[in-house]
Amino acid sequence: MTALPDCRTLLLESHNGVLHITLNRPESRNAMSLQMVAELRAVLTAVRDDRSVRALVLSGAGGHFCAGGDIKDMASARARGSDAYRDLNRAFGSLLEEAQHAPQVLITVLQGAVLGGGLGLACVSDIAMADHQAQFGLPETSLGLLPAQIAPFVVQRIGLTEARRLALTAARFDGHQARRLGLVHFVEEDPQALAERLEDVLQHVLCCAPEANAATKKLLLASAGQPSSELLDDAARRFSEAVTGAEGIEGTMAFMQKRKPGWST
């Protein structure tokens, strides 16, 4: 197997052709920092051409998958101006593109918070399974922000009508609702059942030839149409404008101060 990069925000474990990748920032519910984005992209690059790695299993430590983008990174970017916000946002879009096109079968195991960028990662997985109590949502507009890089992948996954409802209300929903929306494929009632489901799915994946799976995935994605790099570039620009505008400043400050923003009733 290809040598894997050293990671501070990820736990990596490989056996029987499966690479388990655990988001490991439990103190922040595995919020997606710029470092975590960079490390995930490095891992995906390292294994891209390695057909001994048949599947990638992405999960989160501490009972949560991912609570979205790291607000602390946004605060750090503020000092560097709007271009820093755009680049920060666009880096996550690049991660989503690379995860979407990984030749391996990408499986997400979703527990606890699956918000914002975490929901985006679920949307680019080939197979998604969730705990019934997992909490999904697109909270960006409640912070005065945009689900900029995530939106095209959410639309592709669940359709425009439901994506509009969820993004424009910042509504939370559980694993059963995620299954009805087509966001996840399996919903289980406890961690043991989730682990058993993962084992069953992996057995099926490992019955398939790795090159055939990679080629089939590429064909299926091409058949469905893909979010374009130009669209994601424009989304990053719009995100930068939002986060440096009056609503973005008020929304992120309210989040940090644990209060409602001025527009919230």
Number of structurally distinct domains:
1
> What gross morphology would you assign?
globular
CATH topology: 2-enoyl-CoA Hydratase, Chain A, domain 1
Multimeric state: single chain
The main sheet comes to: 6 strands, mixed
Any idea what the radius of gyration is? 18 Å
The low-confidence runs, each spanning 5 or more residues with pLDDT under 50, are: none
Number of helices: 11
Percent of residues in β-strands:
15-25%
Would you identify the CATH H-level superfamily?
Answer: 2-enoyl-CoA Hydratase, Chain A, domain 1
Which characteristics define this entry?
265 residues; alpha/beta; 2-enoyl-CoA Hydratase, Chain A, domain 1; three-stranded mixed β-sheet; 11 helices; 15% strand
Question: How would you describe the overall organization of this protein?
Answer:
With 265 residues, the protein is of the alpha/beta class. The protein has a single domain, classed as 2-enoyl-CoA Hydratase, Chain A, domain 1 (Alpha-Beta Complex). It is built from 11 helices and 9 strands. The strands form 2 sheets. A 6-stranded mixed β-sheet has the order 1-2-3-4-6-9, sandwiched between helices. A hairpin with a 2-residue loop joins β1 and β2. The longest helix is centred in the middle third of the chain and has 19 residues. The radius of gyration is 18 Å and the shape is globular. The termini are far apart. 44% of the residues are buried.
